[in-house]
Amino acid sequence: MDLGLACSFRTTGGDRLGPALAQAGRAAEDLGFASWWAAGDREVAADRSHDPTLGLQCVARETTVIRLGYSGDLLSTEVAAVRAKRIASLDWFGRGRVELGLDLARPPAALADPFRPVDDHVGLAVDRLAAMRQLWTQRRATHEGEHVSFAGAIALPKPVGDRVPATHLRATTPDVLERYVAACGAPHGWLAWLETPGELVAGVEALTQVLGEAADDVRRTWFVRAADLAASRDAVAGLQVRVDEVVAYVDHVPTPTELTELAGLAGLVA
């Protein structure tokens, strides 16, 4: 089982963000962390931290193999072409290591456009993702959807290999998952964000309810608070479901010392 890291892009103790991220990125990779995830849009709005894509670009420049994840993109709050360019630019900095996590729950009021109320935020998010996929993979992209339409669009840069980055979903309800699967196919991964073991199991059961045996091909990632890391890793063995990765969430950019302590708790270092 892999160990990953997630954090909000803000510092403590007066450190500058750029140098703090550079040091932490190098330390995380040296210690053997499998992934580095930015907190999602929902968390950024709550704790007023810096933009996830910009923070991940700093980590990307200092690392070579660690996977780079965006844990909670609220696609219903931003134009598809703008988000597609941001993710593709991040993937260019990361040399093809970016993975995208989608948050299909209703956006918080702080991120909603008061002049353009959205009745169906799931439909809007799914339509925008479909449009982004066209922009990422087609030389002259065309998309005709309920909310987004264009023809002959040129979008640069594209993700490395003109590919669609591996796409994960934050755990959601069966009806929302069914809508996503009908439009986009099965997700690459399933993200349980700060859930209890019981909630984690229920979420995987919902995944199986919708996908059947194909749910076994979906990567399962459990995000836990850093203070709960050791207990959560121990708990995985007793769960009735498979977990592929446990990710320790820190509400700030961790120092190399903090990362070494987390790695010790997880058994990465003696």
Question: What do you see in this structure?
Answer:
- The structure is a single chain.
- The chain is α/β, with parallel strands linked by helices and 270 residues long.
- The chain has a single domain, classed as TIM Barrel, CATH 3.20.20.
- Helices cover 40% and strands 20% of the residues.
- It contains nine helices and ten strands.
- It has helices at residues 17-31, 41-47, 52-62, 80-94, 121-137, 174-184, 197-211, 229-236, 256-265; strands spanning 2-7, 35-38, 67-73, 98-102, 141-144, 149-153, 167-170, 189-193, 219-225, 245-250.
- It has an eight-stranded parallel beta barrel with strand order 1-2-3-4-7-8-9-10, surrounded by six helices. A two-stranded antiparallel sheet has the order 5-6.
- Helix 4 (80-94) crosses helix 5 (121-137).
- The radius of gyration is 18 Å and the shape is globular.
- The two termini are 17 Å apart.
Q: Structural class of the helix and strand makeup? A: alpha/beta
Strand count, sense and barrel status of the largest sheet are: 8 strands, parallel, barrel
Strand order in space, largest sheet = 1-2-3-4-7-8-9-10
Q: How many domain modules?
A: 1
The CATH topology assignment is TIM Barrel
Give the full name of the CATH homologous superfamily. Luciferase-like domain
What sort of overall outline do the alpha carbons produce when their principal axes are compared?
globular
Domain Luciferase-like: 1-224
Pfam family, one: Bac_luciferase
Protein name: Alkanesulfonate monooxygenase SsuD/methylene tetrahydromethanopterin reductase-like flavin-dependent oxidoreductase (Luciferase family)
Keywords: Flavoprotein, FMN, Monooxygenase, Oxidoreductase
